[in-house]
What we know:
Layout: E1 7-19, E2 24-36, E3 40-44, H1 51-59, E4 66-71, E5 74-75, E6 83-87, H2 98-108, H3 115-126, H4 142-155, E7 160-164, H5 172-189, E8 192-197, H6 200-206, E9 209-214, E10 219-225, H7 237-250
Parallel strand pairs: 3-8, 3-9, 6-7, 7-8
Antiparallel strand pairs: 1-2, 1-4, 4-5, 9-10
Helix pairs in contact: 2-3, 2-4, 3-4, 6-7
The chain binds adenosine-5'-diphosphate and magnesium ion.
Amino acid sequence: MSEHTQEVVSVESLAKTYESDRRTVRALSDVNFGVDDGEFVCIVGPSGCGKTTLFRIIAGLEDATAGAVKLDGKPVSGPGTDRGMVFQEYGLFPWRTVAENVAFGLEEQGVEEPQRSARVDEMLQLVGLDGFADAYPKELSGGMKQRVGIARALAVDPELLLMDEPFGAVDAQTRDMLHGELLDIWSETDKTVLFVTHDVEEAVTLADRVVVMAADPGRVREIVTVDIERPRERTDSEFANYVERIRGLIGE
Ligand code: ADP
Ligand code: MG
């Protein structure tokens, strides 16, 4: 057995350069970190430090210039149902009901009835939307839409839940509620979560470890282990110390 059997995601010497006629952008340079099985890791950093680029390469939506991302030791070479994705823009199908949105990945996988509906019901219950199976996305609030996004991502039981600023478009109060719900879902399902945000407080609220990035070139500045019991309170001095330390690393 290798020493990495516990690691669900390994990012190894990853680099990404965007080149055009006019300019070269080093979006990622020599990025290295791992995410352990069942771990909740946040990636935090200023705008433009390469968070979305990193997310897209791990998701298999974009190729790296150098280095590799491995999932359970196997190099990622494209998208797959082993990674469930949640984006800020929801990405729901407007012509499908809530239940039909959640069923999408299961259809792709060829899961038949009645297993498919049973799984959809289970997911809607998990995110607290069991009464909204027949509603359409336009009838939902931002927070509810994002719960549908989470249910859809988890329906196919992915190895990794990948989220890019998923709560960036909802109001602060809803965001706090979604944080609690996401942590409940995480402990209930034992999922491994990789969560991208520019919000330091959000990262300290959620993460076991925070990968702090810097820009120009996009790189890992430091990896901070957040050793505070959950639920965490923003008003705790310990919490504030972590926020201050990470902000200092970012240069905020
Ligand atoms: P973040 O999500 O942290 O804000 P991004 O990964 O979106 O950062 O972008 C990192 C850098 O790469 C930025 O300088 C951005 O302008 C550049 N970039 C991102 N995508 C492209 C692209 N498709 N073509 C050229 N440059 C890009
Ligand atoms: Mg981004």
